[in-house]
Amino acid sequence: MPAGFRRAVRTMDGRALIRRTHSEHNHVSGRVTAMGRVLGYWGLEPLFSHTDFRVRVLSLSHGEARGDGRLLSAMPLRPSHKGAALGAVACWGNNASIEDGRPAVISLSTSGVHGHSDIRIELDRSQLKLSRDAFGRAALYWTRREETIWFASHLELLISILKLEDISAEALYGYGCFSFIPAPLSPIEDVFSVDAGCERTWSVEKDESGSTLCPTFSRLNEWIEPEDQISDERQATASLSNLLEDAIHRQLDPLPSEPVGVFLSGGLDSSITAALLVRAGIKVRAYTLDFGNYGFPEWRCAESVANHLSIPLVKVPADPPHIIRAISATAAALDVPYGDGVTAPLFLLGEAAKKDTSIVFNGEGGDQLFGGWTNKPLIASSVYGSCHPDGDDFRREYLRTFHRLYGYERSVYTDNILAATAGLLPGHWIDEAIDDSRTHTMLHRLRRANLMIKGAQNIQPRATDLASVHGLMVRTPFCDRELADWTFNISGDLWLRGACEKYLLKRAVEAWLPPDIVWRAKRGMGVPLTAWLLGPLWRNLRAWLRPASLKKEGCFRPDVAWRLAKGDFGAHVQGRRIGENLWLLLMWQAWKKAHLDTSVDFDLFGISSLWKEFRLRYHESV
Question: Domain with 210 in it: what CATH number?
């Protein structure tokens, strides 16, 4: 038995349950993580014996020698008769737990809040259940190998133990549409994610020919707009203030002795989070980004909020030298690729915060929950008839709100990828989310869609990855089921009053924050990607997206980055959109190199004359 482990043997269903406890902090693949990890299999034809599985798990968690983490390896399922399922589960990290019983229950919490689980796994000899919380803060992946289901909280665990490497063409296509991979896909062929708020079940069924696994799917959580809506502004304002304070209190157990961190952009949602913590009497240290000489100086708004709340503010440099250093580390931190430009800046925020605290709060999810500014163009289109809310044009308009490469596929992908995705309709990834049978008004329909897609598939799991890699647990008051359910009871005109989005939220918190913070016009995080990538990050961009490398890999057309940079994709991909889509391509390449050990040809000095010519023309134009 390896040093540092102790063995406890208990019985379950008459069989041995082996539990091993590691005395050190969670450290996977050479990196510290606050989030627990789960890996297991269940079925009729396992690839490995229990002993072999245990050896492989110990190999995967090798080097987890920091702090007070745990490695729990449970192998309770051995067939008592022919046709019964067997399986094994390993979980490690402070936020993962195993409950013995029939069935065995494994849960994982990204926030460390008592009594809450983001993923849940149940298994016994006849059934396996995999489920996720509706907000999507933690992922859960599965793949079927003959009559066995493999599952894991992190894709990299399945990649490692099953030696997976084949890229999913459908997932790549979806990534180009959204900047993230739409559920239920993963970047790896034949590996799938469990949808947020859903449960996938496999049961052993027997007939004359033997036993087989039968799958079922169910949605556990729904965002539903009731017929009767609250329209009394005074009543709704008071209720929302109370619900926000209740939500923050539910996330305060437990807390460390040191101050907690809050990622403070100076926007409304992160400012509300900071104010709620201060009102709850919590010691807070705020962290904000400083883009240097590029982009809008958001730290000034954050500084105004910090001064108002009398909390210390740390300005975190996110200028080109820091971003260059963070690219590969950010890609390694992301379990699956996320192509938004906020990824590297958020990585830097977590890197700074880990020096002072183990728990950080953010304002993620506020736009999705309270009807943020991105809803207004679609609402206007439906009102003035430019897109019908029941037709294909509405799907297309919703897909265009992501401002990525949807509609430009022939300019982006190779013929092989186009052939593999021929007939694929991106609308099917959003159909359930934009289904109007559960809502009656356009605003609530969009809010529901944004919670299910932009929130649960992108913003929340991305935030978890980028905090967890630094050993941080991340919490947000807006991932609160009671609060979220209540918002669908409110008349839409209280969320969108004329051109003022989040109107009711602003009324509920206007006494907590400076008026210029509460009522200023909404702006997203202004990451100056185009200025960076066509300026000081030019050499790095070219190194990641060399035409020869892209041609060799066979996913993207060799000239895709060059044509994007020139603005050849048309009127919808200009200005800031150029940088956003170049970053999307860059992060895909960086993720592959970090996780699949592919031969991404990173050449910092091989700048072709074509790119030199463009860079000269670009700088002459500016």
Answer: 3.60.20
